[in-house]
Design a protein that fits this description.
Length: about 220
């Protein structure tokens, strides 16, 4: 087929990538950051929570050495401990986590809203940028998130699952929970955060998947 002989662009055949980009523009134009994903109760949440990916995951993380590195600009990096994040107002998010592999599961998470985090650490000016980039501690897994989705009130920097500290395989010490996106965007073991007006590199988008990954 002629389609199969088309050149590739960002891991996908060019016509497919152009279609995904067109869909992204539509999603962006109608996205309402004030609209909440469906909220559930604790009794609805799974006791045994599925793991949706292990790429870039370390087997052990020593929080005495770990720091969340927030790149504010050239030569300007904010380095935060887990305690620095845990001291901020905590919220609980119980929602239907959806994986691109075709499964979903109601699960219970807690942490600080990303918007609250940015306001507390005087990152308000970064909210005017188009994207947030996140990388795992070892930088082997990475995502780009459009800013409106990142600032939605249910998007949290998460450090608890089912009222307990995150297990290592769920992203200890810190992960992203973003209910308006598929699981590929919920990056675990966050090491680095940065801001950009250009699309940050995204692991699965480079391999032909949808960059936006919205629900």
């Amino acid at each position: 087929m002629k389609l199969n002989h088309q050149p590739t662009e960002q891991g996908a055949l060019r016509p497919l990538r152009k279609t995904l980009e067109a869909n992204e523009k539509i999603f962006n134009s109608v996205f309402d950051s004030s609209k909440l994903s469906k909220v559930y109760t604790e009794k609805d949440a799974a006791k045994y929570v599925r793991v949706n990916g292990k790429i870039g995951m370390l087997k052990e993380v020593d929080t005495s050495n770990w720091r969340l590195q927030v790149l504010r600009g050239a030569g300007d990096t904010l380095k935060l401990t887990l305690a620095d994040i845990e001291k901020l107002p905590k919220v609980h998010v119980i929602f239907d986590f959806k994986c691109i592999e075709g499964w979903s599961q109601v699960s219970h998470w807690a942490g600080v809203p990303l918007k609250t985090f940015m306001e507390y650490y005087h990152l308000n000016d970064k909210e005017q940028m188009k994207y947030i980039g996140l990388q795992t501690i070892d930088k082997k897994y990475y995502v780009g998130i459009d800013m409106p989705s990142a600032l939605q009130s249910q998007t949290i920097l998460c450090y608890e699952m089912n009222n307990k500290p995150l297990p290592m395989n769920q992203g200890y010490p810190l992960r992203l929970i973003i209910p308006v996106k598929y699981g590929v965007k919920h990056l675990k073991q966050i090491g680095t955060m940065y801001f950009s007006n250009e699309k940050p590199p995204d692991y699965w988008a480079e391999r032909g998947y949808d960059y936006y990954a919205g629900l």
